[in-house]
Amino acid sequence: MIIYLDMDDVVADWYGAAQEFLQLKYNERQERIPEEDWQRLKAHSRFYRHLPLKAGARQLVAACERLVSQRRADEVRFLTALPRNDDMPWAVNDKVYWARDHFPTIPVFIGPYSSDKWRHCQPGDILIDDRTDNCEQWIKAGGLAHVYRSWPECQTWLEKVFQ
What is the Cα–Cα distance from 116 to 113, expressed in whole angstroms? Predict the structure, then answer.
């Protein structure tokens, strides 16, 4: 069993960095920012390179690596996607650089798009992702999935799965 961790808004604080960059505060978390805001954001072509860590990211990764060391899982991988419309040419490189900076032992796999993540699923594999639709597709493909909102919530889910 492989544990796949999404990067943006699971271990990297994409949404918080986007709000800061755009100088906007959304009322509630959205799965996609409005198109006009995306156009402004993509003008910063190296946006993905210096995203801050998401709260709880180190604890999440450590818990997953512990499951591997206990032989309860085979591997931990990041599973991320190209930005919408594939219109930020540095995104893939910068995501890999970011992962190497923060979690150098975890390989990065690219969807390539968010809607393709389920294609990486083998029965029993786990996906932890902030997007509900990705998790739903993963489950349909035979895996287990958790919609990530916070580390404590995910920790409870992981404990139930691995008890």
Answer: 5
- With b for 16 or more beta-carbon neighbours within 10 A and e for fewer, the 43-70 pattern comes to eeeebbbebeebebbeebbebbbebeee
C-alpha 151/C-alpha 67 separation (Å) is: 16
What pTM value is reported for the model?
0.92
* CATH 3.40.50.1000 given to domain 2-161: yes
The whole-angstrom separation of Cα 162 and Cα 150 is 18
Distances (CA, A) of 95 to 52, 69, 81: 12, 25, 9
Nearest CA-CA partner of 151 in 128, 125, 117, 121 = 128
Contact yes or no for 109/92 (Cβ under 8 A): no
Summarised one tens digit per residue, pLDDT across range 24-59 is: 776 666 566 778 888 888 887 789 999 999 999 999
Name beta bridge partners: 127.
4, 145
- Residue whose C-alpha is closest to residue 48's, from 3, 2, 81, 26: 81
**Residue type at 146 in one-letter notation:** H
